[in-house]
Amino acid sequence: MQLIVVLQFLIPLAAAFNARRSALTDCLNAASVPILLTSSPSWQGATKPYNLRLTVNPAVVTIPRTKAEVEEALKCAYSTNTRVSAKSGGHSYSASGLSGNMVMDMVEFQEVSYDASTTIATVGSGVRLGNMATKLFQLGERGIPHGTCSGVGIGGHATLGGFGLDSRLWGLTLDTITSIDAVLANGTAVTASSSQNRDLFWALRGAGPGFAVVTSFKMKTFPAPPVNVNWAYTYVYSTAQKAAKAYSIAQAFGQTDAPKELGYGILFFPGNQFIVRGVYYGPKANMDRILAPLLEQLTSLNDGKAPKAVVNTQGWIASLTELDGTTLQTLVRGYDKHDTFYAKSITTKESAPLSLTALNSMFAYLYTNPAPPNTWWMIISNLYGGPGSVINSFPPSTDPASTSSYADRDSGYVLQFYGSTASTRPPFNNQIMTYVKSMVGSLGDEVKNLPAYAPYNDPELTRAEAQQKYWGAGVPRLKAIKSQVDPKGILYNPQGF
Ligand SMILES: Cc1cc2nc3c(=O)[nH]c(=O)nc-3n(C[C@H](O)[C@H](O)[C@H](O)COP(=O)(O)OP(=O)(O)OC[C@H]3O[C@@H](n4cnc5c(N)ncnc54)[C@H](O)[C@@H]3O)c2cc1C
């Protein structure tokens, strides 16, 4: 009986959607915007999320070739009330780039150019990070701060955050943006900067998805450092208490003694591997001097046993390649790397590092609770704050002078708790998700209300929880801007605006 009642509602809804879909495709065809439908041979590749744990269900993929086609496609979506998500590199943890009924794949937007007179780069919104870095170096030996995975797209990276080990030196990717070319939900082309469409510029730099479809960014560039030292020191502590103490020492060192030229993180991997690692942007002798007191303490805690060291002094491109772990340049079309995972993040405040009580509790959990079979997991704590950090040099998003909705300008570390299938392929065992949640839970109440990092978005959070964790006190202003630029809610981000 209940089933019949449910079907009575669903069948008319499906018919209404089918009618809308054909109105949408008719409109897109009339505007000559290239589209893929479920029957297209390349449909599966075009709609395969990076995170294979998730399933997505778009009805149409558009592949605009020009800004005019982005405008036309959005007008079609607007007139048919179709939800749209833009897709750049497709690396969203929640597959949010594929969450719309119409996906707008920005793969044709591949410009990377550099104006030597202003040192500003123009980057198309479909460019993957590795290709951008390679081209900028070729054009003028320049660099932009960004994450380590070469396949990530600039579209989702630069609109939400964009942390690399060079971010304390140069800022997040979004901090480098000076101007954005975009198209609003109703198909109107706009430019946003600190002097033009200021509210939109603020929203796009931190909470971007859902406010406009970006076609290109103008970004500040920096001279690529000639000497880069990629460094990692691995300890295996015999007890959870020692690991907790080591973390506490390493955490404090980062916040007080790591100059901004020292990209710095604390990692914990299966096999009780406790790793401090990063990149020093300068001569190795300086790095050795800076790290010596830290390594002395960590080694003494390990009963004098020296760590396993991997230290490579190299040029900019070699350093980025080592961080990626494979190759820096990636396929523009046909990119097919994936993982099957669940992750959570927390952002600690610089004024309130994790207490030894919380760390003891977390390491006790990790040392005594094995992960489910066939699981890979890791905890990565990257230093965002510390002496001279450019990330924390900008005003908070609620400051009237702020030009970015990125919320955490007083952060210490961003911790990421990540669990995936060991093979990187499905099937995903839900116990992995439970394990990841328990790692965070083992830190206790002091992390419950901490913010989180939007690019590591957690689809298990409700929209309201996610908005609060990612954008905090900026939420009311973001809601107000959304109601101005997209009152019909055409641009879709399940956890955004
Ligand atoms: C393997 C891996 C490594 C990572 N490493 C890092 C790291 O080192 N540092 C870090 O900060 N983050 C890192 N991330 C997180 C990454 O920055 C985010 O997942 C990012 O949002 C991905 O962007 P994308 O364009 O590839 O994804 P997509 O799924 O294409 O897009 C993500 C979101 O952005 C929106 N979007 C995409 N293009 C546009 C556009 N043109 N206009 C408007 N909205 C758009 C989408 O609609 C979606 O909501 C990593 C992610 C992965 C999977």
UniProtKB/TrEMBL annotation:
SUPFAM superfamilies: FAD-binding/transporter-associated domain-like (SSF56176), FAD-linked oxidases, C-terminal domain (SSF55103). It holds the Pfam family BBE. PROSITE patterns: FAD_PCMH, OX2_COVAL_FAD. Residues 1-16 form the signal peptide. GO terms for molecular function: FAD binding; oxidoreductase activity. Keywords: FAD, Flavoprotein, Oxidoreductase, Signal. Its cofactor is FAD. Residues 54-224 form the FAD-binding PCMH-type domain. InterPro entries: BBE, FAD-bd_PCMH, FAD-bd_PCMH-like_sf, FAD-bd_PCMH_sub2, FAD-linked_Oxase-like_C, FAD-linked_Oxidoreductase, Oxid_FAD_bind_N, Oxy_OxRdtase_FAD_BS. The keyword Cytoplasm does not apply. Gene3D superfamilies: 3.30.465.10, 3.40.462.20. PANTHER family: BINDING OXIDOREDUCTASE, PUTATIVE (AFU_ORTHOLOGUE AFUA_1G17690)-RELATED (PTHR42973), FAD-BINDING PCMH-TYPE DOMAIN-CONTAINING PROTEIN (PTHR42973:SF39). Belongs to the oxygen-dependent FAD-linked oxidoreductase family. This is Similar to Uncharacterized FAD-linked oxidoreductase ygaK acc. no. Q796Y5.
